[in-house]
Design a protein that fits this description.
The radius of gyration is 28 Å and the shape is globular. The strands form five sheets. A six-stranded mixed beta sheet has the order 1-8-3-4-2-7. The chain has about 675 residues and is an alpha/beta fold. About 50% of the residues lie in helices and about 10% in strands. Helix 10 packs parallel to helix 18 and helix 19 runs parallel beside helix 21.
Length: about 675
């Protein structure tokens, strides 16, 4: 098998007129926000320091002939996630940079990577074979049209939201990045190893080589090995290693992982009444440790001589159905976590250190996981006696278990509903009694919907890979379980993100770990914040926060479509009365108040493009048509209850929203004073 490998830049890909196809046997795009933002962080950092080369990694391709115009068509069979993300980034730059006045040139340095000129037309440089929904999605992006709702392209659409939000959200430092400079850096200095294999390659053998080529250990696996090496007994290393492995896979609930790792039965560790108080044995790492150790002993077969076997008739008898009829039933779908395991490890390390009154870590950063652990814990641990090392490793892994269990029980995850849509929600364990047997099931029966909605707001509004708010929330759950956790998160959110403190989030969250009900960060005056006429510069957080406040206020006062509201990714500030109306509009806000908060809403980029500069009446009609079954913006729904729109109504709406903020703040503060400071 002949291979042709060379280091190639995006500029060279453009010059060579390469087009890339994702074959049908490849999985769809699966990168989440964490992976996307890490790549963007790396690209921006490399650009800012002026690196000569940024190595993206490798891409394996098979040449599958040529296009009608004679350009090489390459099947991308390895490296598609990174490559697709770069293509999506090029589309985002196309949207964010000024439109060119000429046909074949653009302000966007990645314009020609985004689309390739084939004859008189322009096509996406990357395409998916035999997936027409994805192809339509890509073409709409390239042409700047509102993208269609394509189930196959859902992850791609979400990725676009993440990338746009990275550069446009007012709370994010990257909104000031020089996008032209970044685009030039990516075009000229980002390089990948492009490896071609012959068109007649045996794909089965190739994939066998790829899958067996020795995947590099992930950082958390190296960390696990280092920690377990400090435990003296093999049996103990095995048990704690199993607990670690159960925590490490974030795509399923931890107890499901435990069953998969060791086959441990869960029912003896779960009591429904204890579970209501967060006191089930499954939440106790010592109980889980002891159960795993006992199971290990049971599974170890004592060596038997032939004479012993012949004397002991029981060893020759197969187990009866009577002995096996108590097979445990457990029901829980797989999920998608809002954070990865390396990030969870760093939240746990913060709690491990801070709860012992040690110095906190300086940052949360997945790619520096090992260095963070080494600097802030392991270097000092190496100077301690063996007994101290052993006890600290035990304590850390036990804390990890407790945090992971509470994370699964009380923190939102991406769940697939009956209509095969992904939504953020919480599912908790409960005992299901049916047909004479008991089983364990994960569902949302006892979940407080407001708690999940508030977390969804925080998840979408924070354009960060870290989700620092999780550290103090996990700290509260460790001490109090789920009791009043929703109220605590309200208080935390208000004082953490609604203050005017300039301190980094990691410092502010440190304060709330040390003192959960800290008053160190007073609330901002929302009258001053929301009367600033900041237009598109308003931090997206204020819109998201308001949606939660309004949902809490109106969800039981309105009809089903209001109650069906859910937080979604949005990154575009919409002017209800447009800045540059395309036609005469009698329902308009005067120039002085166009940028006021009362005339604005937060929507997706595609909806903003759809509404554009259309008059109020047409926008209202489109909004009502789109929101027949579910309201997608409560703020805009309140605005579009008005048949007409003008400056007076915009200012009245603004005053109402400020009052909603203040009422909510007062309610949370009063509840905190009455309930949690005793």
């Amino acid at each position: 098998m002949l291979y042709d490998s060379k280091l190639i830049s995006l500029a060279e890909i453009i010059d060579a007129n390469h087009l890339f196809n994702i074959p049908i046997y490849q999985r769809l795009y699966v990168w989440g926000s964490d992976q996307i933002k890490v790549l963007l962080d790396d690209l921006v950092a490399a650009c800012e320091v002026g690196k000569d080369v940024f190595y993206l990694g490798g891409a394996l391709v098979i040449e599958q002939g040529k296009t009608q115009c004679g350009h090489p068509l390459l099947d991308l069979i390895d490296g598609q996630q990174r490559f697709t993300t770069l293509w999506l980034l090029s589309v985002v730059l196309e949207r964010l940079l000024p439109t060119s006045t000429t046909v074949h040139t653009s302000v966007n340095p990645l314009h020609d990577f985004c689309g390739a000129w084939l004859g008189e037309g322009r096509e996406p440089r990357i395409r998916f074979a035999i997936r027409p929904g994805v192809s339509r999605f890509f073409t709409a992006l390239l042409e700047g049209r509102a993208v269609p709702d394509e189930p196959e392209a859902a992850a791609l659409g979400y990725a676009m939201q993440v990338i746009e939000g990275y550069f446009t959200d007012g709370t994010n430092k990257h909104r000031h990045v020089d996008l032209v400079k970044l685009g030039m850096f990516i075009r000229d200095r980002v390089k990948l190893v492009l490896t071609r294999v012959p068109a007649n390659t045996d794909l089965n053998k190739l994939f066998e080589v790829i899958n067996n080529r020795g995947v590099q250990l992930q950082h958390h696996e190296i960390l696990k090995a280092r920690l377990l090496a400090l435990l003296p007994e093999r049996s103990e290393r095995d048990v704690y290693g199993q607990m670690w492995d159960a925590c490490a896979f974030m795509g399923a609930y931890v107890e499901k992982n435990l069953r998969a790792v060791k086959g441990l039965k869960l029912m003896p560790l779960y009591d429904a009444e204890a579970g209501k108080q967060d006191r089930e044995r499954l939440a106790d790492p010592v109980a889980v440790h002891d159960a795993l150790r006992e199971l290990g002993r049971q599974q170890e077969l004592e060596p038997q001589s032939l004479e012993d076997i012949l004397k002991n008739g029981e060893l020759l008898i197969e187990p009866s159905d009577e002995n096996s009829k108590d097979e445990e039933i457990y029901e829980a779908d797989d999920v998608r976590s809002i954070i990865g395991f390396p990030m969870l490890l760093q939240h746990v390390l913060r709690l491990f250190l801070l709860r012992q009154h040690r110095d906190d870590i300086s940052k949360i950063l997945d790619k520096e996981l090992l260095q963070i652990f080494q600097t802030h814990w392991l270097d000092g641990l190496a100077q301690c006696e063996k007994s101290v090392q052993t006890n600290e490793v035990r304590s850390f892994i036990e804390l990890l278990w407790r945090c992971r269990y509470l994370f699964d029980k009380h923190v939102i995850k991406w769940l697939t509903d009956d209509e095969n849509e992904e939504n953020l929600g919480i599912r908790r364990l409960r005992v299901n009694e049916s047909r004479g047997y008991c089983s364990l099931i994960r569902d949302s029966q006892d979940v407080e919907s407001g708690f999940a909605m508030l977390q969804s707001m925080l998840y979408h509004s924070q354009q960060l890979t870290t989700h620092y708010w999780l550290t103090p929330l996990l700290n509260y759950l460790l001490d109090h379980g789920g009791k009043n956790a929703h109220h605590y998160l309200k208080y935390l959110d208000n004082h953490l993100l609604c203050s005017d403190s300039e301190q980094p989030l990691i410092e502010r969250t440190r304060e709330f770990v040390r003192n959960p009900w800290s008053e160190a960060y007073p609330l901002r005056d929302m009258q001053a914040v929301l009367t600033a006429n900041d237009g598109t510069s308003f931090a997206h957080y204020w819109f998201y926060k308001l949606e939660y406040i309004l949902w809490e206020r109106y969800c039981n006062q309105k009809d089903d479509k209001w109650r069906a509201f859910r937080m979604t990714a949005r990154n575009s500030v919409e002017h209800v009365s447009p800045q540059n109306p395309e036609s005469v509009d009698s329902n308009k806000v005067d120039q002085e108040h166009l940028d006021c908060f009362g005339n604005l809403g937060l929507v997706s980029r595609s909806i903003n493009s759809e509404y554009g500069n259309k008059p109020y009446v047409e926008k209202r009609a489109r909004f009502q048509e789109r929101n027949k079954n579910r309201v997608d913006s409560i703020k805009l729904a309140l605005i579009y209850e008005h048949e007409h729109w003008n400056s007076e109504l915009a200012l009245a709406h603004q005053s109402q929203m400020i009052a909603e903020f203040q009422t909510y703040f007062d309610e949370v503060e009063n509840a905190a004073n009455c309930q949690n400071r005793s």
